[in-house]
Structure formats: structure tokens, C-alpha cells
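Sample 3 of the quickstart, ligand magnesium ion:
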Amino acid sequence: MKEHVHVLADLKNVSPDLFGIPTGTKLDEMFYTIEEKDGRFVRKPLNGIPYKAIINVVGVPDTGKSLLAEQFALYQAHNDYKVMFVTVESPSQFLYGSMKLKAEYLGLDFEKIKNNIIVIDAALGDELRDNPKALMDTMAYVIKEKKTTITVIDSITGLYEAKEVMARQIVRQFFNFLKKWNQTGMFVSQKRSSQGAETAEAAGGLAVAHIVDGTIVMDKKLIETKWDINLYNMPLGSILRTIRIDGCRLAGHDSKTWVFEITEAGTIKIKKPLEQIVNTSK
Ligand SMILES: Nc1ncnc2c1ncn2[C@@H]1O[C@H](COP(=O)(O)OP(=O)(O)OP(=O)(O)O)[C@@H](O)[C@H]1O
Ligand SMILES: [Mg+2]
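Result:
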């Protein structure tokens, strides 16, 4: 029991440094720390998601969660970091082509990337997807053998598909596992149809948001009324895509809703805060 009790001062040596792990998107500028400069506190961008954070990316279907997770993996692999990519939804054979195309489109070095991303396929067959212990053993093997420091799980929801009451326990187990192995992580979480599209709530309820270190919410809106056309200055039938950091307990963050685009290669480009595109004249 005693090993769980600490004087705050003793935690100095185990306290992780606060710096950013870049995603290659504008999200990187949206996390910050505060520094004292000439007697004033000023924001200093982290240039990434906080080191050793587990960030949950939440959204309804087709909002770009997988695209963001892949782009993060590509960017890290391009920068010589080893990434473990656990695919739970989409079988691994689809990843090669889509990652290659995205890397080329983003001007990243795929020759390097392809050896730095280690894929665990938990999509085909249920021996890994339905068995957290077996999956974590496989992940531990990859971390040890391949020296990965970044882990992406797309999606964590897929690991408790038929047993939603287990969501909290399963997310907690994977969260603790990644902490133990000093990984910086990105989880993708799906929503259930009853859950507000713009909230941090995911399948399994708000429990998931409470466990992780931070939540990013991705959303989309069909421009379908005169009001929408006028408010967003967008044509009828187009799609407004938004992203925002809902919360993060490890670092300060921008709290605005940002508009982003999905490019023809399936990459994410965060453009402007939503408040800057809306027409407030009427
Ligand atoms: N190469 C591409 N070109 C244009 N649009 C694309 C491309 N790839 C993906 N998209 C668009 O991006 C959308 C979001 O894709 P993504 O797979 O990231 O969704 P998701 O949020 O992970 O959804 P799900 O919860 O179903 O897994 C797709 O539905 C598609 O409309
Ligand atoms: Mg997806």
C-alpha cells in the first residue's frame, strides 16, 4: 500500500516534461503551456498533443477520425518515431494504399514511414478484438521489439462492441497499459445515435471522456436551409466540417471550434475558427 503514497515534492522526478508530439495539423498550435515572461504569463504553443497524453478523438461516422489518426501516425513515422497502429475497424490490407497516397500528398517520405509504422490487425478475426489480454500481450511485444513510442487505436469502441457495459473497464485497461509503457496515444471513439454529435460523449457514455487525458470532437453539418447558406456562406448541399479540443487535463488548449477540409487525398486541413466564417451581418 505504501508505494501508492507520495509527498508532492517526491513526484518531481517522475513528472513528465510538458512538450508536444506533432500531428502535422494545426491542432499542434492549439495546445499550449503558460510561461512567465517579464513578470507576465504568456502562452507558448506545445507544437503537438502533450507528450504521453492519451487523446480520444470522438465523432459520428464519416467525420474524419480515422483520417486524423492516420495523418498523426504518418507524421510521426516520417519524423523517425516508431508508431504502433492498432486497426480494429478496417482490415490492415487497406492501410498500405491509403497511407502511401496520403504520405505522398503531404510530401512525407513513405520509404521511411513504411518501416516505422507497425500495424496490429484486430479487425479480422475476433481473437484480438474480443480479448483485451491477448491484444495487450501483442501490443507489449510490439512496444518491446519495435520500440514504439506512439500508439493509435482505431477504434477503442470496436474493443467493446457487443459489451458496452464493459466500456469503462476496457478503456481504463488500455489507458493504464499505454501509461505503463510510456506511450503517447490516440484513441478513436465512435458515438451512438442518441449522443449529441458535438459532445465529448462516446459509446460507453461519458466514462470514456473521464478516463482519457483529453478529447477532440470532430463533427459535420449538411448545409440544407436558407439560414445555413446565409450563416456559413456555403452552397446548399455542401458539408461544413468542424474540429475542436473539448478538454485536456495535461495542457492548456484553444477552445474554439475550427473549420477543416478533407483534401482529395483524404488528409485533414484545419482552416479557420468557425466564428470567422459565419456571416454575422444579419
Ligand atoms: N481520399 C479521399 N478523398 C475525399 N474524401 C475522402 C477521402 N478519404 C476519406 N474521405 C472522406 O472523409 C470522410 C471521413 O473519413 P473517416 O474514415 O476518417 O471517417 P471516420 O470519422 O473514421 O468514420 P467511422 O466512424 O465510420 O470510422 C469519408 O467519409 C469520406 O467522405
Ligand atoms: Mg474510422
